[in-house]
Automatic annotation (TrEMBL):
The lineage of its organism: Bacteria, Pseudomonadati, Bacteroidota, Cytophagia, Cytophagales. It comes from Adhaeribacter aerolatus. Keywords: ATP-binding, Kinase, Nucleotide-binding, Transferase. GO terms for cellular component: plasma membrane. InterPro entries: ATP-NAD_kinase_N, Diacylglycerol_kinase_cat_dom, Lipid_Phosphate_FormReg, NAD/diacylglycerol_kinase_sf, YegS/DAGK_C. GO terms for molecular function: ATP binding; kinase activity. It holds the Pfam family DAGK_cat. Residues 5-135 form the DAGKc domain. This is DAGKc domain-containing protein.
Length: 304
């Protein structure tokens, strides 16, 4: 049975540099909504400097009933990690270029509709993953996509178009890495174009890497795209955008509760859109239903 919200106080964590919309306009919309619905509010604007500790201090002093992350995947991950294993739910007002987690749990991408969940949404617990002490709420990967995330973060242009252009340029000369993967159920060894550690379904670009993933089933999936001939690229891309990648002969999905992944030293790890420094051995563990999330009631109907 999912909990219906009855919030009196809310903390809004706003990333002032995410998205294209004026943050003054966003804050005004939030203030108007909270005034109309008699909701006490506090704002915190991220700076990239000591945000985690300052948000924790605000939570301790203000004691909000919900914390709303306003921004992209990085802002959502920041707030989610603070709230993980607590009773305070995470709400999301998506303003980033990807917004992967918010899309996977059905949160509206329009600000007014996302705000409305404060009154008409439900609270549901979802799983999280631990990779060498780093928390994953959505997707993490090694290989080609992580390499493109690195290039994308180094550039000045944002949005899906910029990501796609970088991927197109780098794809031709990309050389797959080798991996050794031991899960609690099976062992796999070989080269892979990409290795995605998935607690959800799709990237923010709407490419579905893990069609059968469920956010609260106590399992995660390691989704492998094995090396493929250049001529197969268009078909693979089509499969990713039509929820059929699992049918490809170049796709393999390992469903598990724990895993050890051994990678090459030059391979890159990204977690929820952020690059992470790590050792060449990744220890992946499941945290079952560790995070409370505010989401639309339709999600409740779909998961019953």
């Amino acid at each position: 049975m999912l909990q219906k919200p009855s919030f009196q106080k809310a903390l809004f964590v706003l990333n002032p540099i995410s998205g294209d919309i004026s943050k003054e306009e966003v804050q005004a919309m939030v203030e108007e909504y909270c005034y109309e619905h008699h909701l006490q509010l506090t704002f915190y604007h991220t700076t990239g400097d000591n945000d985690c500790n300052e948000i924790k201090e605000l939570i301790a002093t203000q004691k909000p009933d919900v914390v709303m992350a306003i921004g992209g995947d990085g802002t959502v991950s920041l707030v989610a990690e603070i709230l993980n294993f607590s009773s305070i739910p995470l709400g999301i007002i998506p303003l980033g270029s990807g917004n992967g987690l918010s899309k996977d749990i059905g949160i509206p991408q329009e600000i007014d509709q996302a705000l409305a969940l404060l009154k008409n949404g439900v609270i549901r617990k979802i799983d999280s993953l631990d990779i060498n002490g780093k928390t994953v709420f959505h997707l993490s990967d090694l290989g080609f996509n992580a390499f493109i995330v690195k290039k994308f973060n180094e550039g000045e242009t944002r949005g899906p178009g910029a990501y796609a252009w970088i991927a197109l340029q780098e794809y031709i000369n990309y050389a797959p890495f080798s991996y050794k993967i031991q899960t609690d159920k099976e062992y796999w060894e070989g080269e892979a174009f990409m290795v995605t550690i998935a607690n959800a379904n799709a990237f923010g670009s709407n490419a579905t890497i893990n069609p059968s993933g469920i956010l609260d089933d106590g399992f995660f999936e390691i989704c492998l795209i094995e090396p493929f001939p250049k001529g197969a690229a268009i078909g693979l891309l089509f499969s990713l955008y039509t929820d059929k990648i699992h049918n490809s002969v170049y796709s393999r999905i390992l469903k598990c509760k724990s895993a050890t992944i051994r990678k090459s030293a030059d391979d890159i790890l990204q977690i929820d859109g952020e690059l992470v420094e790590t050792s060449d051995t990744l220890i992946v563990k499941m945290n079952t239903k560790s995070l409370s999330v505010l989401m639309p009631p339709v999600v409740e109907e779909e998961t019953q």
